[in-house]
């Protein structure tokens, strides 16, 4: 799966920001038709995105378009326009039911068939950001095999449950954990919330590290300055990689010697710790390390 340590948004009508994004070495570039684009700019944004995808070199960055939500009324124009622009990936925000995932995937499949494109080639990511979405997570996460990741939207979620956002984000902890769990159970990537205060690098680092420790694969970002710190937080450190390799090696040796659990530097190692070490190495490889 494509690494998604950082997913950078910009308003779809802002060509300058799209150009800037292609110079940053960010894992995912998400050109937005939804809330980042003013209501009266939707048509212009569709055209700007299409032209940018024709003209710009995105390097290895994933080329994503976020359409408006299913049921907003915009989706009937957004989705065909987005598909005609030939992105790697469609992002659907505010998903609340499995039917919305299935409907979107079927529309994409129809398009692929009509245009002779490889079936299942266009990737699908969804935003989970309402109370109803969280309640329906298990059906949503297993609704369609095109789905690769679920993106948690904290601001919309807080609004949907009537919570006030706080620095430690305790009010969204349940939903974040629910998204991670649903993703883990279905081999999807979980992408964490935006850190809105984009000039506060220290706060961003703390929140990104917390997200990585909770099990998220990446985080949404809204400003170029957030890309580096976030991609670093979601890349295993050199020390973590060395340690994970030692766990894997020593585990095999101990298994052969007939020991399921053993002591490594004063810590007990057994099967769950091996699995954890393998996850670390998998993430390191996805990030081009190890
Ligand atoms: N993507 C790409 N480039 C961006 C960017 C983004 N999200 N945000 C800022 N930049 C660029 C600016 O264009 C500017 O480039 P320049 O020096 O070539 O002119 C540079 O980075 C510095 O920007 P800065 O002046 O610090 O920020 P700003 O005042 O222009 O923009 C925001 C601040 C918050 C409006 C802007 O970051 C933004 O639009 N973010 C994305 C919002 C969005 O898409 N929301 C919906 C999804 S949550
Ligand atoms: Mg939102």
Write down the Rg.
20 Å
Coarse structural class: alpha/beta
Which compounds are bound in this model? coenzyme A, magnesium ion
As residue ranges, the low-confidence spans are: none
Instruction: Identify the strand order in the major beta sheet.
Output: 1-2-3-4-5-6-7-8
Shape: globular
Number of strands: 10
Any idea what the CATH superfamily of the largest domain is called?
Phosphoenolpyruvate-binding domains
Mean pLDDT: 97
CATH 2nd-level architecture of the largest domain:
Alpha-Beta Barrel
Domain module tally: 2
Helix content estimate? 40-55%
Biggest sheet features: 8 strands, parallel, barrel
Distance between the termini: 17 Å
Under CATH, the topology of the largest domain is which? TIM Barrel
- CATH top level class name of the largest domain: Alpha Beta
User: What is the string of helix and strand elements?
Assistant: EHEHEHEHEHHEHHEHEHHEEH
Number of helices: 12
Can you put this structure into words, describing what you see?
It is a single chain. The protein has 290 residues and is of the alpha/beta class. It has two domains: 6-233, TIM Barrel (Alpha-Beta Barrel); 238-286, no CATH class. Helices cover 48% and strands 16% of the residues. It has helices spanning 15-21, 42-55, 75-84, 98-114, 131-135, 137-141, 154-161, 173-185, 201-214, 224-233, 238-256, 271-286, and strands at residues 6-11, 28-32, 62-66, 89-92, 123-128, 147-152, 189-192, 218-221, 262-264, 267-269. The strands form two sheets. It has an eight-stranded parallel barrel, surrounded by seven helices. The model has no long low-confidence stretch (mean pLDDT 97). The chain binds coenzyme A (COA) and magnesium ion.
